[in-house]
Amino acid sequence: MAQRKERIDRGIKVRSDDVFVLTSWREMLYLAAPRVVPVVALFVLGLVAGPYWERVLISTCMFALLAISWDLLNSAGMVSLGQALFFGVGAYIAGTLNHYLGLPPGLTIPIATLGGGVLCTVALLPVLRLRGIYFAMVTLILPMMIERVIEATKIFGGTEGISGLSTLGSNNLEFWLAAVAVFVALFGFRRMMGTDYGLLLKGISDNDRAVMSAGMNIYHYKAQALFMSSAVGAFAGAFMTHAYQFVGMPVFALDYSMIPIASVAVGGMGTLAGPMLGSFILVPLSELLRGLGGLRVVIYAVILVVFTVGLPEGIFHYLSRKYNQFERWVGVER
Amino acid sequence: MLEGTLIYGFINSVILMLVALGFSVTFGISGVANFAYGALYIMTGYLSWLGLHSLGLPYWVAAPLAVVVTGAVAAMIYWFILLRVRGLVVSEVIATFGVGLAILELFRSLGFIGFEYTLPPIIDASVMIGDTYVDAQRLCIVATGILLAAFLWFFTHYTKTGLAFRGIAQDERTALTLGINGDKVAALSVAFGAGYGALAALVILPLGTIAVNEGYNVLVNALAVCIVGGLGSTVGIIVASFLIGFAQILTSTYLETSWMMIVSLVAILAILVIKPSGLFGHQKQLEERI
């Protein structure tokens, strides 16, 4: 007998996207598990990891934040090739405030987060009207240019950078803060994208003309999305500055633009959870490949191309489909 | 002083034009923004260096071979990668950028850094123009620039392939009904653009060393010229390269050499604020861009 594969959404998935009538522990577990398991897993990992891998987890969390901010920006129709801009601006604000004014990290990180968000938004305001590759071109160029300016003017320590900044405290504390920050950003932005406001942002990315026709000022909303995204990026930069106790020109390096995009490509676009999953795969992987030196970037680039071309939906979409749907073979009548 | 500035400004403008032509040809025809352009440019340099020093080929074999290989690599990038994501702008940009990054960083990790990676100049001499010494290589660049620009014009106006290029550029669907194979033409245009970049690399790279970072600079310069001039407009590219070229030389004369790259950014930002479609951009591009 001929057969075909049938795919059905789980009943609970169909209902629970909007209507919450949970009638059993099983249903509640079904919904809660995908949220709770990663959170618990990360904190347990942090407890069992040694000092070295704890540092790796911290930087993984920061790359996850950058990837989330990339995805948020992309959800509003702005493709960035320069997350390093946000990262670097945040890092430099925190570094200089700490070095020259002697502010403690408890102050510099919030100031860098907000200030970096404002600065990057203002810097990109003139090009907010652009979209697609034009916006990408400008964001690609900006971090490179800032690198050159710092090199030419020798401000903020020039090519040497500033070292000997104050730390956040112990490794453990840094890890807990980083993990909390990632989950706040992840769940906060996911909730936001589910509201009407998030729908508006997605609308801008899908068809900005239609959103304009509906009487919305899309530049207003684009600027808001830009601010949120750059603030998250700047937070990651400020945090890393204090974790490494160093700020210098490498914060504008291509790594900080490339790895988030690679994470998004691996994890899957538009879900915010996908990018995080992607960076939790890629960053530890790159730690394992540390012996390869410069070849790591090549491997990243190849992974990026392979996933963009071969598996554009990414891992997260695949996993969530497998989780939310039944698949079974059914007979076909001739 | 002024005369020297003018002459070197002119030469720098031609260099920019050469660099931007290849990028613009590809984008203007197939609509693919080839972010691997800088990498292909530098790859030509390394390939001809390898041909000269590792294989021991004479210059007139190694250089054309490098151009052909670069063109073939570009065509392969289109055929195996871009063809699958054509029309998805984000994927196009990320894929080409990833390929470029892979090529450049591969050279870097293989140890292609240092001052020994130089190409021989085509003519090793210098000429006196007025009171200024100009080496023959720079005059060679000017000649190549004029030749390539003229060839592009003749090619797109008087050959079948060139007309097919323009057909695809203007309206792909109509071109398809006339029996033009869109994918083949687009692949050809990517290879053609890379070939232009490769020729530019052969004449420009002897001025300095072949360095991986130059690949990123070339991409930025090409983007700057194309954005300021209006993407896809050859006249715009020539005008924009002269504007930026002279501005760069003036900055390096009166300020510092390290400020030269800043000029490109200022030019881009200024033009995007004032006239986003570029100096000679068309209405259609304006619509796509904003």
UniProtKB/TrEMBL annotation, chain A:
- Report whether Transmembrane helix shows up as a keyword of the record: yes
**Can you list the GO cellular component terms from the UniProt entry?**
plasma membrane
Q: How does it sit in the membrane?
A: Multi-pass membrane protein
Xref: PANTHER family: HIGH-AFFINITY BRANCHED-CHAIN AMINO ACID TRANSPORT PROTEIN BRAE, HIGH-AFFINITY BRANCHED-CHAIN AMINO ACID TRANSPORT SYSTEM PERMEASE
Q: By its UniProt entry, which Pfam families does this protein fall under?
A: BPD_transp_2
What terms describe the molecular function in GO for this protein?
branched-chain amino acid transmembrane transporter activity
- Species source reads Desulfoferula mesophila
Sorted alphabetically, which keywords does the UniProt record give?
Cell membrane, Membrane, Transmembrane, Transmembrane helix
Record bears the keyword Transmembrane helix: yes
Which InterPro entries does the annotation name? ABC_transp_permease, LivM-like
Q: Enumerate the subcellular locations listed in this protein's record, separating them with semicolons.
A: Cell membrane
Q: Which stretches are transmembrane?
A: 29-50, 56-73, 85-101, 107-125, 132-150, 175-193, 225-247, 259-285, 297-319
Q: What is this protein called?
A: Branched-chain amino acid ABC transporter permease
Q: What is its main location?
A: membrane
From TrEMBL, chain B:
**InterPro entries from the UniProt entry:** ABC_transp_permease (IPR001851), BCAA_transport_permease (IPR052157)
Please name the PANTHER family in this protein's record: AMINO ACID ABC TRANSPORTER PERMEASE PROTEIN, BRANCHED-CHAIN AMINO ACID TRANSPORT SYSTEM PERMEASE PROTEIN LIVH
**Gene Ontology BP terms:** amino acid transport
> What subcellular compartments does it reside in?
Cell membrane
Residue ranges spanning the membrane: these are 7-29, 35-52, 59-81, 93-115, 136-155, 185-207, 219-247, 259-280
Q: Which UniProt keywords apply?
A: Amino-acid transport, Cell membrane, Membrane, Transmembrane, Transmembrane helix, Transport
Membrane topology qualifier = Multi-pass membrane protein
Q: Recall the GO molecular function terms of this protein's record.
A: transmembrane transporter activity
Q: Which domain of life is it from?
A: Bacteria
Q: What is this protein called?
A: Branched-chain amino acid ABC transporter permease
According to its record, what are the GO cellular component terms? plasma membrane
Similarity comment text for this entry: Belongs to the binding-protein-dependent transport system permease family. LivHM subfamily.
